[in-house]
Amino acid sequence: ALLVALIAVLVWAVRRPSSVRADEGGPGAAPGAGAHSVRRFFQYTLMYAMTILAAIGFSNLLTRALTSSTGPTDASSREWEARLLAEDVSFALVGSLVLAVLVWWTWRTLRRDPRESSSLGLVLAVTATALTALVTTTVHLQAFIAALVRPSGDPGTQAAPALVWGLVWVATWFIAARALPPARQLPHRALGSTVGLITMTWGFTTLLSTSLQILITGDTLVGGRTALASAGALLVVGALVWIRYWILAAQSDPHSTWWLLHVLVVGVAGGLLLALTGASLTLWDVLVWLVGDPGTRGAASHFSGTPGHVAAVLAGVVVWWYHRAAIAGSGEGARSEVRRVYEYLVAGVALAASAAGTGTLVVALIAP
Does pLDDT of 284 surpass 90? Predict the structure, then answer.
């Protein structure tokens, strides 16, 4: 009832300005434009919501099947477990049935009106569904791989969500390739490449930091094996995502705004900021130890965070160098607009870092 009331209110709100424009004879009085906008908004929003609902339901049901449980003992626990089971079954059934109807309706609409494939609502729904499934699959797949290595890990609790959300991602990728024109697939590919790059860089930095700390201290640390397993799993999953999105897809895409945003903002600027941050923190640790006041801490305690800073420097330099090479090999001229934007961006990052360092130095000099 609330959903129907909301639909009625929004239909009235959209149709009222359209009718006013039509009465006035002004522009934008195309018949049915407001109704089409409302229909697309609710159709694609509901399709996205039903996809999430069905995936959650099937994921929880499959988790129950893959994990062993002795079951609740008292009556209240059994009642609560039955409610959760009923909720999961409802999510799976209702979500999948409504989603099937919406997908069939959308497919008919696309066949009847090819212009529907370029609508903003469809592009947003497909992109949001793909990225939601991608991020969720990445999280659970990383936890699944790490649980396989840990002695007390329970991979069954992570296998079901990774499988269900992975199937959702594969299906959405297939739908995007069939339903959207090539130009409308660029946001999905660029944002997916960003997710893979950030995940891979994070895993590489954590893995290298933990390994250096273990090598320097000579022991396995507390939970060192677990940390190595989690970081290694994060690196592997991020690399797989990045290869699928960037190497096999987005790298050869036209150099659109989305492509340039990923390469310049995420790759060049992000890599430089990561490298500069790690280098600044490393130099800070060294200077405090040599000419500052490290306090009563020993060298091992004072430089405990230095391996992470060094790993950040190496990861940032690699990310920056790779995307700089992508700009250089893009076929642009020596002083093209892309090259100018790259140079101004690097100069801006360096200027911001210099300003921050100068401000900190001035405050340190005048502070009592």
Answer: no
